[in-house]
Amino acid sequence: MANRRTSKLEKWAVHALARLWEIRNVLFLAVPYFFLLSWLFLGSSSIDSRPAEIFSVPESPVWAEPDSIHWFGTTGSGVDLFQLTRLAMGTSVAVAVVCSFFGISTAMLVVALFAFDSSEHRFRPIFVFSRAGFLLPAMAVLVIFAGGSGGSLPFAMLGIIVVTGFYLAPMIANWFEEGGKGPEVLAGFGLGLSWQDMLVGRVLPKVLRRLVGMFAQLVPVIILLEMALSFMGFTGDRLGVGAMIAYGQQSIIEAPWLAVCPGILASVVVAALSLLGAMVSKVTRSGLLPRHF
Amino acid sequence: MEETPTALLEIEGLTAERPQGMGERGIGLRDVSFTVHSGEILVLAGEAGSGRSLLGLLLVGLSGPGVKVLDGEIRFDGIDLLKARAKERRRLRRSEIAIIRRGAHDQFNPDRTVRKWLREVVKMARRTRELDDEKKWSDYFYRVGIVEPEQILPRRMHELPSITIQRLMLLRALIGKAKLVICDDATADLDRIAEKQFIELLSQLRTEENIAVLMTMGSLRGVGQFADRVAVLYEGGLLEIGPAHEIVESPAFAYTREFLVSLPRITHLPRLLPTVSKNAAREAEGVIHRQASPIDPSAAAKD
Amino acid sequence: MTRICFRYLALALVRWSGVLISLVLLVEFSFCVVGGSNRHVWGFDVYQSIPLELSVQPISWWELIAERSGATLLALAIAYGGALLFGYAWGILAGRFRRFRAASIFSLPFSLFSCVPGFWFVVLVAIHSYVVWKRPGFANELVVESGPNLLAWWNAAVVALPAMAVATAWQLRSVAGAIENEASRPFVKGLYLTGYSEDAIFYNNILQRALPGIVSLLDRTLPLVLGSFIFLEWAFHYDGVGSLLVESVRLGFYPGIVVSGMWMATLATAVTMGRQVVAKLLQPVQ
To answer: At a CB cut-off of 8 Å and minimum separation 6, what does B128 contact?
Structure first.
């Protein structure tokens, strides 16, 4: 019997299914991400989200302790604290995702400026600059920039993006250097390929795959950074978990749940995202921290 | 009446499976049985995937977590190696069983000096009292063909050529008073001259010390010159075993014949580039799976 | 040895100068270019007396720095010292028991702890203080008549704890990762085959070869700890260099920003230089 010619569409479908099967572990991890982020982002947004308004204590405050209806209790003006915290957390995650994306993009852009140079020490300026820059803590730079620029969320995000890009650029440059010394690159030289061809065709795909794990681990770190800036009042008068805790401190005797409960949800969400990030980096064999056994 | 010498190493009905990628498992060794006696060199030959390296690692108890022994026994000097405790196996590896592998530079810490490494070897062999002085090592160096030991003692392992390292591994076997030396593709990294030197040295030590040698090789090249017996492995099973000159001069199976010659066939260029002819492979499979029938010579001539 | 020290010192001075210039430019850019302030870093009117918000009573620059430095150094000794101690010890232990996923198990409590916002601890400490000592403060004010200043140690320890958790988690995994790199080299299997024991392979071979890599991690967590102190000190109202930075930013007091920033950079430079010298000394002689 003669072999039936498989159509291009069938070949493509088989190839796509095989590829999906290979990355099934990563796809499996996408499910908890989807549920967690949906739950956070689909919270009620009809609440007035200015902390000064929310946490203003009227003469006769109507706050309620945590119970079966209001899991986190209510504020002095009767607003459900759980919904507020969920909204604040969703905003923090959104900010972190945007900052992580643009931070990694900034780092890639910086590295790309030097990557196409075929000389051996092409990334030396990045390493030299970073060795000096690491002497000043990133938090100090963020506080100075966010505070000096007036303490608003866009500038805080800009600061986080620039600092993230600065810290990630040497790491990504290292990945390019490692990739440039791999056996397939040496084989490429033997075939007569140019450095640019090998960079785009062989080194870059490997680096891009590693960015997935880096992104997954970066998001919870930036959430904590954003919360710290929000706590210090450097993200403007907008609802954030840090700001909620800062405002909650003012009524810590009368209504301790105002400060305690947002921290609990924040810890749980950050821990969940950290765990997921660690699993993604393990599955993709990439990430910020060295792989452990 | 001549007594049959007692076998030092006895492998009886050994069957093992191993992981094969994509979550599947396959049979690595199939009902393999043979013995090795003191003072003889047995060559275990087979192509890649025949199970020769797996057998070597099973002998020293370091086959890896995925390998599972399904049946069989391995007895060394009366000790069941498969049931022995890790401590006992380690004791044997330090002294009575020496293994020399391919990838000479992967057998030690590359930063160690030869001097420091030898002191560790002497200590592990529990011969510190006899060999505490470096001057007492000179006899051992001479016997493995290292004529100027003072030149190499201060050098680091990664600086030495492969043949020197393999000589040092034989020296380690001598210090540990090894009864069995397993050479797992030990000559793969050596050039022809170095390989010749190593095999000659091995033969000499085999005679002087009555050591049993089990050599795994990827070809049958030159085995007739130095081996006492030859065993041919195919897909995890033992195809044939016998005196070296018999295997070389009149092998029982076409596979062995073709493996012995192992010349590329320029006239035919089949798409899948098999290692041996189809008939030889079919015959060998039949023997391994106990369905053998002798090959028809006329059919073999047409192929 | 002297030549090595001088070389690293020169390098450190160059980097330190670069950080100073960058910091001054950052302040100018943030406050003036973006923030729209008309007070420039190089303006004489900026360098006036210390604002009263930074100190209850009139105080000289030297006294302010000394007081704040002492407080931060105390907390730093606990946080950084603890991170190095636990990070290295548990990281090496995790490497020793690498087959049993020890690194994951050992780092889990620190990793989970570091997911908790550090400034949130001020809330928990304040509530604990109120419940246990009946005062909504930082700690008990019982003063010990003689002996060590336990109150100061307690305050410093509370500030240091969240920073230590983060730094320890990172240090542990980095040390374990450096050990894993060596443990996965081909020669390790060769050592097993030649009869070396687990302990001999790990301590005499893997750990020795991993030592330069492990030593290079000495100074990596310091910027992390110093950065954490910035918001932790401010949250706990702990008068240290970190809170000086935040207060100076809020007041727009440029000298305070530059002094506190450079204090951190100087400390990081000194520790990095120390690490480089130690790494050089531990390098095997070629």
So the answer is: B122
